[in-house]
Amino acid sequence: MKWLKKLIKFIVAGLILLFVVILILQKFGNITHRISFSGLGTLPDKFKLYHLRPTSDGKLLVGGAIPSGDNSRDPSIFFQNGDELTQIFSPQIVSWSPPENGYGWIAAIGNKDDIIVAALKSYKSSGGVEGRDYEIYVSTDLGKSWSNRGKLPAVLHSAKNELSLIEIIVHDQNTFWLVGLNILGKTNDGAKSWKSFPIPFNKTTLSSNLIIENGDQLLYSGEGLAQSSDSAKSWKVISENKIEASDGTYYLSSNKDQSETRLEKLINGKLELISTIEESLLVESISHLGMKVFFTASVIGTGSVVGGAELRIYISIDGGKTFKNKMIHGIGLNGDNITTSSGEIWRVRQNRTIYRATIPSK
Fold first, then answer.
1. Looking at the whole model, is its pTM more than 0.70?
2. Residue 127 and residue 156 in contact, taking contact as beta carbons nearer than 8 Å
3. Distance CA 95, CA 69 (A)
4. How many angstroms separate the CA atoms of 73 and 49, rounded?
5. Residue 18: per-residue pLDDT
6. Of 65, 179, 182, 221, which sits most exposed with the smallest number of CB within 10 A?
7. Cα–Cα–Cα angle for 313, 314, 318, nearest 5°?
8. 104, exposed or middle or buried, with CB in 10 Å at 0-12, 13-18, 19+?
9. Quick check: is 5 in a domain?
10. Which residue range(s) make up the domain with 110?
């Protein structure tokens, strides 16, 4: 009987220890768990993806190009609505023809409600001279019909730079903004004409972002954070720290050696530090829903290959004060495209299969 009593004591002690460990991990731990994705539509074979744009009502716009012959591409937009994937933009749909010795692709998409603004970028090579143009297409019925609003003025993009248009922001059916290479553009007539404005910092970055707060009030992030109350005619610099990702309320930045990531919140025109994550991260995107804050990032130096990175989502339910993270998949930076919006994660694996997951509440 003594051995039985010892066994029972051993089991009870083990259960108590396990319970304590679970409590500690729930409160302080940062154990990663995989997130389960649901597979939706599959893009055409060899589809080249350039832009993901979640809509405000839980749908996804995917812009890019489909290879069509020798070194040629057909600019294309697909619309993921529930389980249905529909192509809503193609050269045949909008009656577009590529330039001689050239091709095109969708470089950026803006969306608000039923309005979609697409930048079709075309490449041409003639006599050893390369050039790139942007044509703006607008739909006011979520891609059922399109209107060609003409080419962007040369001042708003670089004819030689591959990444000279970063983002399109739709304010209403007539007012659009775009973030270009070291410049901002604005139209008040549905992209028929444009005005240009200087950016508040020395250069544009791939993470540069423009948020329309209210009418003429703007927030621009990239090499820092600046605010304008007169439609970009003048700027007030709020921070000179490089912003890796933002959603207009929360801002993520890294220190110089990228050993830690800072989460800050814009309060009364100032950035206030909320928390610091002592990991080396490459941040993808950030968004929030009430007190829930979530961002996706690749953790540098992790994964099963040398120089690999685990792609994770960091979740906070207390306004960003504390985070737990969950693994999205074992190796990041491997051809995946990912974005977050309104409590969901959108992911395109190897530029073809579209997946969606609901961000867990814990």
1. yes
2. no
3. 18
4. 12
5. 60
6. 182
7. 145
8. buried
9. no
10. 45-151
